[in-house]
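Human:
Take a look at this sequence-structure pair and walk me through the C-alpha cells.
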Amino acid sequence: MTSRVRKAVIPAAGLGTRFLPATKATPKEMLPVVDKPAIQYVVEEAAAAGLGDILMVTGRSKRALEDHFDRNHELVATLRRKGDDRRLASVTESDTLARMHYVRQGDPLGLGHAVLCAADHIGSEPFAVLLGDDLIDPRDPLLTAMLDVQERHGGSVVALMEVPDEDIGLYGCASVASGGAGDVRRITGLVEKPDPGNAPSNLAVIGRYVLAPEIFDVLRTTPAGRGGEIQLTDALRALASGEAAGGPVHGVVFRGRRYDTGDRGSYLQAIVRLACERDDLGPDFQDWLRKYVANEL
C-alpha cells in the first residue's frame, strides 16, 4: 500500500516549433481546441481525478499560462455588470480548478529534466505527470485507473496504447511480462523510439504517468540519452529492471478516446472530433461538415 497521490506535474516548457509562426509569441499550450486552450483540458483531467495541487513546469514566454489560470478581475467585473452569466462561468472556471504552482525549467534538457525540476515541490510522495499533447476524453478516466493501480501495487505506473507496428518508432515502447489482469501489465523494460524491426512490442507509452518519488534519485544520475536530452523513459527503465530502487513499474493499456494535439494534422482532427461531440456546436457543425465533404472533396 502507498499514500494516495495528491499532486500533478504538467511539463509545459517546450517551444512549440511545429506550430510556428502561431507559437512565436503564444505558448502552444494556449492554442484553442474548440473554445478552450489545450492546457485547460489537461488541468481539468487532473482535477477530476482528485489532484488538487498542480505544478506547471514552464519556460520563457509562458506567462500566458499563469495568466489563464489566474483571476481576471476586470473581465469578471465587466461580465457580471452585463449579466452575462454564461461567459462569466466559463472564464472563472479555469481559476478554481486547482491550486496552481509554477517553476521554470531554464535549460531545455528533456522531459526527464522537466520532471526533475518538480522535486522540491513534490517531496517524498508519489505524483502524476500529464503531458499536454495528449488529451484524454473525460468519459474514459485513464488517470483515475492509473492512480488505483499505483495505490494497489506501489511503484510507478505508465499509460500504454497499442499502435501499428510501423508507428512504434514514434513513441517510447514497453516490454511487458506475460500474463497480467485485465489491462494492467508488469513492465520489464522500456526503450525510447525504437526501430520498428527491433521494438519489443507494439505497446507505446503515451503522456500519462504516476511516478514514485524515487524517480528523482534516478533522474539525477541519468545521463543524456536520445537527442542529447535526459529521457524519463531511461529512468523508468532503471526502475522496471531493478537497476534502481523504487519499482515496480506497471502499465495500463488504454483503449479509450485520445486526442493528439502534438502536430498540426492531429490537432485539427482533435478540434473536429471534439466540436462534433458538443451539444451546442455538434449538430450544425456536422451538417456543414457533411455538405463540405460531399461538395468539396
Observations:
- The first strand starts at residue 7 and ends at 11.
- The two ends are 56 Å apart (CA to CA).
